[in-house]
Amino acid sequence: MGHSVHGSCGLKTIGVRYAGHMVQLADLPEYRKFYAKLSAGQWEPRTLQALSRYLDRDTVMIDIGAWIGVTSFYGAQIAKSVVAVDPDPKCIAILEGLAAGCANVTVLQGALSDRPAVMIHAVDGFGSSETSILDMGGGESAEAKGLRLDEIMAGAAGSPAFVKIDIEGYEYALAPTLGRLKTYPVRALQLAVHPQLLEKSLVGNRLVRRLKTAYATWKLGRLFGNHFSGPWLVKYPGLVSYIVFGIVFRVVPRGADFLFEQKR
């Protein structure tokens, strides 16, 4: 990792090298252990590989659920531009501080939703990667502005886009909205699915909740029909294998990234 510097908005940053690029991220003590993991290549290598594969100076990255900017500001080094979206006020402060020194990144505060406002519920406190819009009881909650899909995709201005979505379980509720991505020039889409969070939010006995979770995840995997190829997964040969062995027969359902690619 590099030395700390103060950005133009007063945010102290540190250079972190990962996946072949040195990226300026927020120099905050709560993230130092994570940065060491990131530098060691132990955090979502497939996500970073997808960014390297699909982004170029003609492609816009749409990062929905940008967290503290790890993917957004990595993508900014190779993409035409980046739209970073997050509802978390702590994350927004970090993203805006970083964007002050990165001209091709636009930050939008809010949650992808067809509603004007939604409640976000924090599992581990705001600013955590565990923040979820699903209501699982307990913890803090805050109202976030709803951002329509067309508002977010307007940032691509008609250019080809790589869309990364990690919205902590809310992907299940937003399936019809996500399905509209096939009407945009999307080169590829990476969708993080969180069946463990969905299951926690459901009512009924364990078997009922598990079967509902498996079916909802199946529908997400088939969301784009024949418009996109995939979903491709890392540890499973296909969607059926993931549903059976990653969800149904696990003590706790396992999250996964679905990678879809536009058919040529």
Estimated radius of gyration? 18 Å
Beta-strand content = 25-35%
CATH class: Alpha Beta
Name of the CATH architecture:
3-Layer(aba) Sandwich
Helix content: 25-40%
What do the pLDDT scores average to?
Answer: 93
Strand tally: 13
Low-confidence stretches: none
- In the CATH hierarchy, the third-tier topology is known as Rossmann fold
SSE string, helices as H and strands as E: EEEHHEHEHEEEEHEHEHHEHE
Span from first to last CA?
Answer: 40 Å
Largest sheet: 7 strands, mixed
- The number of distinct structural domains comes to 1
Discrete helix count: 9
Principal-axes geometry comes out as: globular
Strand order of the largest sheet: 6-5-4-10-11-13-12
CATH superfamily: Vaccinia Virus protein VP39
Structural class: alpha/beta
Description of the structure:
- The protein has 264 residues and is of the alpha/beta class.
- It has a single domain (44-262), classed as Rossmann fold (3-Layer(aba) Sandwich).
- Helices cover 30% and strands 27% of the residues.
- It has helices at residues 32-39, 45-54, 70-75, 89-99, 149-153, 175-179, 195-201, 206-221, 239-248; strands at residues 4-6, 12-18, 21-26, 60-64, 81-86, 105-109, 111-112, 117-121, 141-147, 161-165, 186-193, 228-232, 256-262.
- It has a 7-stranded mixed beta sheet, sandwiched between helices. A 3-stranded antiparallel beta sheet has the order 1-2-3.
- Strand 4 (60-64), helix 3 (70-75) and strand 5 (81-86) form a beta-alpha-beta unit.
- Helix 7 (195-201) packs across helix 8 (206-221).
- The longest helix is centred in the C-terminal third of the chain and has 16 residues, at 206-221.
